[in-house]
Write a structure and sequence with these properties.
Oligomer: single chain
Number of strands: 13
Structural class: alpha/beta
Strand content: 25-35%
Distance between the termini: 43 Å
Bound molecules: adenosine-5'-triphosphate
Largest sheet: 6 strands, mixed
Radius of gyration: 24 Å
Number of helices: 11
Helix content: 25-40%
């Protein structure tokens, strides 16, 4: 069975003057998925998606959106691909309604802006001027404008930066709605939690290269330490017995508290060992590795 690719990037390279922003990036985004691009500052994420949008011309490699070249077929790609606008592109005095009508007029077959406004919770703010909107309202408008041309895919770059946790969660729900309506989403983000919650697959980009490409769970499995169990044993416990447990990466005892790093299997083995010795584990905590751990393992940080 062949998967239809909405976007394909192969061997992408882009430099600004002498400075390489993207050295070698390849990935393919399947139709209908939320594909994340995650990476430290300056890793080349924005440059990559700007090449996908046809806003920048690659130095090498190929980019295709629904089989089209975003530079050569710019007009067609613009109709297929909704891009979120930069905040500076909107006049501060423009009202929400005016912005929606204006952007709808740019497209041959626009979505009904009233329906979009309703879906994005903007109906009560139609007469509000852009400058007076909250961060979350601006982002909702930005998503509405990205969707107004009825695109098959959208590029959302750092959509939730600067939003408070509630507005961020609301925006996540909207992004899921967008995907559920059949639109493929290419999402650039700094936030691990966001990537973990939303993305079907993630390309971790570091220093202009793809450091890893996997599902969130797959990336977490690659983290060196996947699970940490800590507890205060009710009786004496020999560190050597713990160290010998399957996949135990490290064992530390400090002020009576034992911390074992390993895998889920190690955790089960610790529990069995304690049961065999009839030792009770007080204040038992088990922490799963997060995408943060995987990210730190996979990236070095472009500026470091
Ligand atoms: P951030 O997360 O900080 O937005 P990013 O991963 O999106 O970073 P890019 O914005 O693609 O990274 O930038 C990659 C590198 O290219 C950086 O070193 C950046 O300073 C540089 N760069 C980006 N745009 C330009 C430009 N127009 N002219 C010169 N250098 C640029």
């Amino acid at each position: 069975m062949s998967t239809t690719h909405m976007m394909e990037v192969n061997g992408l390279r882009k430099a600004y003057g002498g400075r390489t922003a993207v050295a070698d990036v390849s990935f393919a985004v399947a139709e209908g998925e939320i594909f994340g691009i995650l990476g430290p500052n300056g890793a080349g994420k924005t440059t990559t998606v700007e090449c996908v949008e046809g806003l920048r011309v690659p130095d090498a490699g190929t980019v295709r959106v629904a089989g089209l070249d975003p530079v050569a077929d710019h007009d067609k790609v613009t109709r297929l691909l909704g891009a979120q606008l930069q905040q500076s592109e909107l006049q501060p005095k423009l009202t929400v309604r005016e912005a929606l009508e204006l952007y709808a007029s740019f497209h041959p077959r626009p979505a009904d802006w009233r329906t979009l406004a309703e879906r994005l919770g903007l109906t009560d703010h139609l007469t509000a001027r852009y400058a007076t909107l909250s961060g979350g309202q601006k982002q909702r408008l930005s998503i509405a404008l990205a969707l107004i041309g009825n695109p098959k895919a959208v590029v959302l770059d750092e959509l939730t930066t600067g939003l408070d946790p509630r507005a961020r969660r609301e925006t996540w729900a909207l992004i899921e709605d967008v995907r559920d309506s059949g639109v493929t989403v290419l999402l650039v983000t700094h936030f691990m939690e966001e990537a973990q919650r939303l993305c079907d697959r993630i390309a971790v980009i570091d220093k202009g290269r793809v450091a890893a490409l996997d599902t969130p769970a797959g990336l977490i499995r690659r983290a060196t330490v996947s699970t940490v169990i800590s507890f205060t044993p009710s009786g004496p416990l020999d560190d050597r017995e713990l160290t010998a447990l399957p996949h135990a990466a490290s064992v530390q005892t400090q002020e009576g508290r034992v911390v074992v790093e390993g895998t889920d299997e190690t955790v089960n083995a610790v529990i069995s060992l304690l049961a065999r010795h009839r030792i009770t584990a007080h204040q038992l905590r088990v922490t799963e590795a997060s995408l943060d751990d995987a990210f730190l393992d996979l990236t070095t940080g472009a500026d470091r």
